[in-house]
């Protein structure tokens, strides 16, 4: 894997366009960014090879699938149990994401469930994982700002050029 130490404005615009619509065809990306199709392809290849662009995944509306309850579960673990607990959590279908953290909790786990009773059952299952000492759960009421990268990429590349590409008009 190559490393990309920085990105320029064109990279940021390309990544933001893909974040907004991962199904955009190469020709549409080139037209929106006002660069050659080969430029877009070369940039995508470089960003993918460097591991910056990890994939072209679909965004799933969990509520429309009947998974209306999303919770963040803070886990406190026994000393030395981190990897074993992570491995167990990886095998649980309701676990969407696991983050190792600092502070009182060792892990923060995002979980989706159909209902509060189902969430309670999932939480009991998580609490039964060897090495989990305590949990504290927060239920998300809504997601007013979903995961996004475009504003950060724009800020990181503010004032940078677009390589040899000309800036978009207007």
TrEMBL record:
Pfam family name, one: HTH_24
InterPro entries in the record: AsnC-type_HTH_dom, Dimeric_a/b-barrel, Tscrpt_reg_AsnC-like, Tscrpt_reg_AsnC/Lrp_C, WH-like_DNA-bd_sf, WH_DNA-bd_sf
Entry keyword Transcription regulation: yes
Molecular function terms from GO: sequence-specific DNA binding
Record keywords, A-Z: DNA-binding, Transcription, Transcription regulation
GO BP annotations listed: response to amino acid
All copies of domain HTH asnC-type, residue ranges: 7-68
Top-rank taxon, per record: Bacteria
One cellular component term from this protein's GO annotations in UniProt: cytosol
Name this polypeptide is given: Transcriptional regulator, AsnC family
Naturally occurring in which organism (per UniProt): Geodermatophilus ruber
Phylogenetic classification of the source organism: Bacteria, Bacillati, Actinomycetota, Actinomycetes, Geodermatophilales
């Amino acid at each position: 894997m190559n490393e990309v130490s920085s990105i320029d404005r064109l990279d940021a615009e390309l990544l933001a366009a893909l974040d907004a619509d991962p199904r955009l065809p190469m020709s549409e990306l080139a037209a929106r960014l006002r660069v050659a199709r080969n430029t877009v392809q070369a940039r995508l290849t470089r960003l993918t090879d460097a591991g910056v662009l990890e994939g072209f995944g679909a965004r799933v509306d969990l509520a429309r699938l009947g998974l209306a309850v999303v919770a963040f579960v803070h886990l406190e673990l026994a000393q030395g149990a981190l990897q074993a607990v992570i491995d167990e959590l990886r095998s649980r279908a309701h676990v969407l994401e696991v983050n190792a953290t600092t502070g009182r909790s060792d892990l923060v786990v995002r979980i989706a469930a159909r209902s509060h009773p189902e969430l309670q059952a999932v939480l009991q299952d998580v609490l039964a994982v060897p090495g989990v000492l305590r949990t504290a759960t927060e239920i998300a009421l809504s997601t007013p700002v979903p995961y996004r990268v475009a504003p950060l990429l724009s800020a990181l590349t503010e004032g940078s050029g677009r390589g040899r590409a000309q800036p978009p008009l207007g």
